[in-house]
Amino acid sequence: MLINKASDWGPKPFKMLRCWKEIEGYHAFVRNKLKEIQVEGWGGYILKEKLKRIKKDLMEWHKFHSSNLGERIQNTKEKLNSLDMKFQEIVPNENDIEERLEVIASLHKMSELESSIMWQKARLKWMKEGDANVIHCIDKERVLLEEVKDIKEEIFSHFQNQYRWRIQTGPRMDNQVFKQVSEEEGELLIKNFSEEEIKKVVWDCDSEKSPGPDGISLGFIKIFGKS
Asked: Which keywords describe this protein according to UniProt (predicted)?
């Protein structure tokens, strides 16, 4: 799933960062982009296409806000230091004090953004290098497979064999008496889920846990579900 110098596991997955929602303008940006995306079709298809297309816009937005972040932090620190040196020589007025507070707030926001990005990168590195659940090699009939291509083929072959259709004679249920649901209970079993039920299930889940294969978190759905 990840790409490094030694092994190519396929395309790098899309990742959402927790810190995005704390950046000024993020919510307005996403809502405007979702409104701009016009898709026709049934509800599920519209949602899929909107999420698919918004990812590209989010990556560009992320690059804009995180590019040269370390350099911007350093420049802001130097500006703050310059103001402090200036205030040692003169008595600051209200505008000077307000400017210093704005610089401190900007530095704080950028530092939090950098910390969040580094934290998420550290998690990815841990998952890639330190987690015992990550597959680094496979023992096939006492032959160690370490190449990515061989590992992929062996995993595919294993599950292909596991789920291959086989004609088998299963146990018979002749003369068995089972409890039956009532007609009313049967109707409840095939009843369509209501919007309220679906929303409750989504809202009961942790916002930052288990994003789907598309990388979209449940927190994103909660915030922008109506956009």
From this structure: Endonuclease, Exonuclease, Hydrolase, Nuclease
Tokens of 45: 């298809």
Residue 151, pLDDT score: 82
Total number of residues shown for the chain: 227
Distances (CA, A) of 16 to 11, 22, 103, 140, 161: 16, 13, 27, 37, 35
Residue 145 DSSP code: E
Element (H, E) at 119: helix 94-125
Token digits for 32? 């405007």
Cut 0.85: pTM above it: no
* Of 116, 115, 122, 87, residue with least CA distance to 101: 87
